[in-house]
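F.,

This is the one I mentioned.
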């Protein structure tokens, strides 16, 4: 980053002063690039990675258009700048950033976002605001109702434009831009530049200057990626240990569904963590309160769906945890980009069940991420980390307060140093949730390094059986994936499969059998009705009752005689001459007189 003083002369003095008061000693690359543009009226097309300081960047870029040579903004009835953002949270966050950036210049802001009271927003717009920030749908609604007058706009900013197009806001964006003056400036910020974005720039921008600060290495330089392999049943315990080990002042745990968010929030809250939840089912007021709790330190862990993956900037967010592996590399990067922002360092931990490691490897390869593969923190590691934090705590270097001097003296006279240390330790540890014991994980070799075995190498094979068979429509096509997943093996580890009437026998290579059985005992098959049992030596497999390519067999393996009748009385009804007689209106059972409609046995 470049020192602020080197570019202060290119900014209005009141804006440079606001930056210094906020603690800005340097600028990020994207901020430096936008203020270096000599033509202050030129449109900009900016590619910048999430967390690169884009909000302040376009705030600086439009300063000359709003202020000109003036030191302060005059009161207005119609806005001078319009910022369009894809999500409510991002719009509200942009508004907060622009409030301090233009506060000293007398700038006023207004927000127009879904989920908030539109009548209150209209009253604020009637009072006049220099800058309006909103989401596409709500902005269009205010324009159509004549509550938002865009005829005096000097600058329009489209923030996260690629995301707005992905979310289906193209029609709303075109409507908003069509309602603005032709001589306005259009600043378009987007992490990626797909064809729809370029089409939008062709129509609504005039000779836009292209700025890109994205490079291969810069994309992840401030984020340290950890890939944590866990047993499938240990995911929640691993996350508990992860939170305990890092004790970050602010953490986001990403889940794929709202239900998972509610479950995790409840589980972590019960364990003693200060937690808030953030998902699409919450009202805007509830979401605002959750984020505010994180900002002011009342909560330290936010459990969220991907609604929080874009635009959310929390102070001291040192840790991002992927409880569920995202569906694509773009989501992975945007989730991870909540940490490591604007020059701060951060850790991104991806919790990966061992049976999903292959897909996780592919995902990270597409995202150009090379993580540090490791296992979750153990109880011993967490205990040692707690010890280091306690011994190095700044509380021991604090000077004694005069108000407490008398009490400190009395405590030292009444109790020994050992008693005081014991009390301090008890109070400290009482607030900390207990870590969890984790099951050992058998690491798979990285993809491409797994040794292939021939199917014929089963001289020392071990046999197992499943409690399903032909009567349950068992088929190797769906049995084989279940077996491999349950035992954490590949199809090359599975030999012969014999499907019987009510059970299925299968062979596992001797080299993989021990790990297979240990894994099955720990995590089962993943199916409630399916169970795997140990057999050992090759079982005495009876001839199949329905061999492939041959005639149907009886239970004892004898050929089925088509002319043979089912004589005698079966359970719940009569069987005579190959026909089932209805009794009491029900085939094969029930009270009533015999007779009625007969059912002929269908031939196989």
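My design for it:
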């Amino acid at each position: 980053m470049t020192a602020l003083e080197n570019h202060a002369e290119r900014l209005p003095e009141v804006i440079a002063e606001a930056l210094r008061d906020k603690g800005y000693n340097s600028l990020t690359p994207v901020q430096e690039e936008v203020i270096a543009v000599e033509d202050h009226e030129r449109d900009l097309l900016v590619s910048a990675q999430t967390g690169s300081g884009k909000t302040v960047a376009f705030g600086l870029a439009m300063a000359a258009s709003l202020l000109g040579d003036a030191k302060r903004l005059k009161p207005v009835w119609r806005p001078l700048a319009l910022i369009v953002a894809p999500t409510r949270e991002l719009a509200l966050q942009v508004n907060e950033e622009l409030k301090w950036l233009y506060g000293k210049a007398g700038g006023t802001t207004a927000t127009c976002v879904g989920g908030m009271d539109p009548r209150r927003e209209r009253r604020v717009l009637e009072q006049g605001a220099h800058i309006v920030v909103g989401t596409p749908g709500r902005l269009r609604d205010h324009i159509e109702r004549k509550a938002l007058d865009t005829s005096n706009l000097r600058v329009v900013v489209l923030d996260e434009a690629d995301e707005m197009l992905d979310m289906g806001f193209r029609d709303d964006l075109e409507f908003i831009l069509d309602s603005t003056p032709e001589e306005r400036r259009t600043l378009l910020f987007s992490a990626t530049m797909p064809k729809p974005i370029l089409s939008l720039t062709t129509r609504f921008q005039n000779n836009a200057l292209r700025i890109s600060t994205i490079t291969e290495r810069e994309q992840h330089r401030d984020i340290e990626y950890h890939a944590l392999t866990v047993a499938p049943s240990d995911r929640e315990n691993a996350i508990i240990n992860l939170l305990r080990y890092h004790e970050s002042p602010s953490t986001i745990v990403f889940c794929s569904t709202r239900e998972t968010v509610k479950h995790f929030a409840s589980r972590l809250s019960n364990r003693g963590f200060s937690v808030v939840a953030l998902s699409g089912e919450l009202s805007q007021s509830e979401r605002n309160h959750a984020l505010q709790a994180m900002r002011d330190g009342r909560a330290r862990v936010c459990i969220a769906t991907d609604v929080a993956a874009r635009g959310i900037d929390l102070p001291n967010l040192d840790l991002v945890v992927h409880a569920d592996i995202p569906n694509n590399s773009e989501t992975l990067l945007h989730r991870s980009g909540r940490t490591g922002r604007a020059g701060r360092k951060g850790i991104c931990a991806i919790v990966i069940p061992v049976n999903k490691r292959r897909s996780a490897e592919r995902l990270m390869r597409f995202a150009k991420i090379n993580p540090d593969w490791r296992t979750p923190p153990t109880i011993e590691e967490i205990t040692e980390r707690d010890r280091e934090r306690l011994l190095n705590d700044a509380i021991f270097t604090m000077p004694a307060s005069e108000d407490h001097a008398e009490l400190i003296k009395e405590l030292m006279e009444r109790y020994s140093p050992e008693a005081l240390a014991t009390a301090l330790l008890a109070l400290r540890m009482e607030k900390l949730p207990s870590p969890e014991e984790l099951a050992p994980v058998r690491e798979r070799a990285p993809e491409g390094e797994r040794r292939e075995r021939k199917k014929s190498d089963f001289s020392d094979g071990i046999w197992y059986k499943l409690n399903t068979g032909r009567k349950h429509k068992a088929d190797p096509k769906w049995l084989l994936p279940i077996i491999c997943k349950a035992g954490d093996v590949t199809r090359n580890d599975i030999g012969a499969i014999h499907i019987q009437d009510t059970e299925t026998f299968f062979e596992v290579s001797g080299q993989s059998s021990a790990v297979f059985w240990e894994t099955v005992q720990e995590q089962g098959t993943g199916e409630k009705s399916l169970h795997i049992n140990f057999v050992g030596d090759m079982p005495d497999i009876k001839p199949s009752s329905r061999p492939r390519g041959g005639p149907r067999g009886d239970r004892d393996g004898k050929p089925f005689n088509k002319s043979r009748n089912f004589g005698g009385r079966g359970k719940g009804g009569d069987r005579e001459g190959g026909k089932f007689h209805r009794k009491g209106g029900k085939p094969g059972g029930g009270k009533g007189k015999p007779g009625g409609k007969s059912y002929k046995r269908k031939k196989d």
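The radius of gyration is 34 Å.

Talk soon.
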